[in-house]
Design brief:
Shape: elongated
Enzyme class: lyase
CATH class of the largest domain: Mainly Beta
Number of helices: 5
CATH architecture of the largest domain: Beta Barrel
Function: Lytic transglycosylase with a strong preference for naked glycan strands that lack stem peptides.
Distance between the termini: 98 Å
Subcellular location: Cell membrane
EC number: 4.2.2.-
Structural class: alpha+beta
Largest sheet: 6 strands, mixed, barrel
Strand content: 25-35%
CATH topology of the largest domain: Barwin-like endoglucanases
Protein name: Endolytic peptidoglycan transglycosylase RlpA
Length: 263
């Protein structure tokens, strides 16, 4: 009985030691990244659909350090473009948390970037074959000086770069404004907008058309004279969106030469 208890205790200790060694090996079960062994058909996976999303709090520290190098996260991705080398990451990271606190799915259209705010939407073009994909950036990386983005397995498949492992790409952020900010800016807008309809030296024609359009569209008009030329404009209109809609309507109704004027 004593020998049996001693063997049981020894087995238990060995299990603890092995478990400890396992925990020291890191959070990933696979030591080196690789492609999935039994991947589903990802050729039909849709591009990420850009929409406004507030930047996450957890994934956007102003700066962070990896492998002795410090990175500063951009305040916004608006206008961001860059050309460089893309790589991709797969099975080793599949199912683990991204820097955004989400679960990495190598079969989705996602990506990792070192400094873009999370989440961001990016159009990626493989410059070798002009194939494109739109991905949602929700992770950090790749931490190699010569690489600018890490793509999911599905995105890399769409860009036809799985065999080469890397590709020269162009990145273009698709930036979506906060709808609330857009609406607030519209309410605070102080500029006046006019739709220039037509110009003519025939003052009688301009006067008649001004009355006709004012009645039809229920908007004020003004006539500006420059020498012998008279310009008919509809307005003023306080909202640019409304002025743009009226301009589009006029172009469709026989005034393709009309254009917007802002003061």
């Amino acid at each position: 009985m004593r020998n049996s208890n001693a063997l049981s205790l020894l087995s238990f200790i060995l299990l603890l030691v092995l478990a400890g060694c396992s925990s020291q090996s890191g959070r990933y079960k696979i030591a080196d990244d690789l492609a999935p062994t039994d991947a589903p058909d990802v050729s039909k996976v849709e591009d990420a659909h850009p929409k406004f999303e507030p930047y996450s709090r957890g994934g956007n520290r102003k700066e962070y350090s990896v492998l002795g190098k410090t990175y500063r996260v951009l305040d916004t991705g608006k206008g961001y473009q860059k050309t460089g080398i893309a790589s991709w990451y797969g099975a080793k990271f599949h199912g683990h948390l991204t820097s955004n606190g989400e679960t990495y799915d190598m079969y989705s259209m996602s990506a990792a970037h070192k400094t873009l705010p999370l989440p961001s939407y990016v159009k990626v073009t493989n410059l070798a074959n002009d194939k494109t994909v739109v991905v949602r950036v929700n992770d950090r990386g790749p931490f190699h000086d010569n690489r600018i983005i890490d793509l999911s397995y599905a995105a890399a498949h769409r860009l036809d770069m799985l065999k080469t492992g890397t590709a020269k790409v162009k990145l273009e952020v698709i930036y979506i404004e906060n709808p609330e900010s857009v609406a607030l800016a519209a309410l605070q807008e102080t500029k006046l907008h006019y739709v220039q309809v037509i110009a003519s030296s025939d003052k009688g024609r301009i006067d008649h058309l001004a009355q006709t359009l004012a009645d039809k569209y229920q908007v004020k008009t003004r006539i500006q004279q420059s020498g012998n030329l008279f310009r008919l404009q509809l307005g003023p209109i306080g909202r640019q969106q409304i002025a743009s809609q009226l301009h589009q309507t006029l172009q469709q109704n026989g005034y393709p030469q009309s254009y917007l004027v802002t003061e």
